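Re: the 647-residue chain
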Amino acid sequence: MVKILTLLTLPLFGICASFANDGFDIVSNGQAKTEIVLPVRANRIEKYAAGELSEHIRKSTGVLLPIVRENRLKGDMPRIYLGKTRFALQHGIDAGGLPPNAYLKKVSPQAVILAGRDGNGTLPQDDRTPMGTLFAVYDFLENNLGVRWLWPGDTGTVIPPKTTFSAGKNENKKHIPQLIHSRIREASLGNPRGLLTDEEFRNAKLERQIWMRRQRFARGESFQYGHGFELYWKRFGKTRPDFFALRPDGTRTPYDKRYDLVQMCVSNPALHKQIIDDWLNGRQSFPGEFINGCENDRRFEDGHCLCPNCLAWDADPAKTDRTQYWTKDGKTNIPHDPPPPDNLSDRYAKFWLALQAEGAKHRPNPVVIGYAYFTYSNPPVKTRLNPNILVGIVQNFDYPLDAEKRDAFRRQWEGGHKTGASLYLRPNYFLAGYTLPYIFAHQFAEDYKFAYQRGMKGTDFDSLNGMFGTQGPNLYMLARLNVEPEKDADAILDEYYQGFGAAAGKIREYFSFWERQTLKRDSAFSRKYPEGGWNPMGYSGNKLYSLADVAHAGTLLDDAEKAVRNSPGDLERVKFLKKGLRHTELTLKAMNAFDEWKNDRPNQKKKKAFRAILKELDSYRHEIRNDQVVNIVFIQQLDWWMGWRGD
């Protein structure tokens, strides 16, 4: 445990030095001039890294470099050494003592050495195994060969063609990630339901996993802890009712049948002992090294415990005792227009500290993980925390943000940082936008860097929605900030646009247009169209974007297509965006037709018109199902929520 928290304080970059000399030729005039060397007993990470390096060089130069084991080398030549080779160790390159996913990179006229802290997991699926050597290879491919991965799959992979490729300038670099957990969750929402074959579904997911590894998303230490007490009602509802939140009627029962989301009496010392017992015996709802102090999601805004001890833990108990706002309704208690309770964060801060103190009786330096969420999202007023309290900041908003909401996020993060806790970002805002060109890349980059510069220890994004053909700049910004967290937002977007070659200017104009349109979804718009949960654009996107907007955007992509008509790779990438625009057009038409029918349900003509355009949209989705343009499995579920499916 001490080692985990030590990692939280390490800088992003350690040693990094460059010298004047160029390295040796790897490929010269279409001929291999070196080979890739693996340790005699290479692990899975090293072997996977060798395959990635060899294949990208082949696609650039047309030359497949040999991959050989170190005990079978013949002759004397400059070589590329991966992982824990004898050669690397003899030259002082030993990654064994590094944190997970850290790596060393050395380029000289005699050799390239790429070595990192590795595990032996199966890639690309396993994001919890250390993979430092692989990340060193990706560093080399990006910075020495110029590779960029705009989106999953071959079309989104930009590899500069070369007939001669040298190792580049002399370099010594040590990279230690500040983010010890970086993850985007998969937004698949279940099985493909006949939309994809099993093989297509697996391949689509695999392409996304490969892309995430290439963008260095990995969990050196896992923060993957969900609701800590989902099973507690089943386990203790009859025997220990004192574990659960006290309701206004004096009972300690769930408010409805979502027993997994029952609220807890977090001041109860007996509950603390039970949580620690579960931690020690591997019975946490989400087992792991950390003590899980993540409260269950609330079913009611005002569903917190009203017992005297919990109220006494609040910064201002008078503001959090809402008993007077509740009225009885049969067997249940329901809120009667109560104002939301004021800051409950001191209560939960004391809860986490109590768990930490109880855990310290059994193991040294325990780490407690919790969420800043709902009515305890703001920093505690009176309670100080410490670095072994790891808090996930869960914003209750979607981009774009007006000035007031952006200031609120920054106050939340700054305040949490000042408590002394370790913070990580656990947002839901990449779930927003439906399938539409919902672009907020600049605002997101500014807030990400604000958090990173104030001690952010990890990220856990919900979710990778897979709308690469419509929301590419958002997803590329998210990916590249994971690699270079302090890089300028426009510089990152320029990388993305340059992947379209001579069409870069038109693609920049295209997405800048959609970003301006997206910014019109301000607070007034949201108040007017509040429907939709975390995918509001599925309900109101046709109020923000119009078919006229699609027509204008289409002219920009037509111009982009003309600019790259003689460049096959760039042309394919422009066509990829055109598929996304066609999907946007059909989606807006379906939304318009659905609104027409929704406002006049008995009208069978309007129902038929909606069903016809939905059928056309479904047919188009089937046509592009394997292209990573949109995630059709994910959006099928959203369609059900919006009422598009069934009768």
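The CA atoms of residues 67 and 190 lie 39 Å apart.
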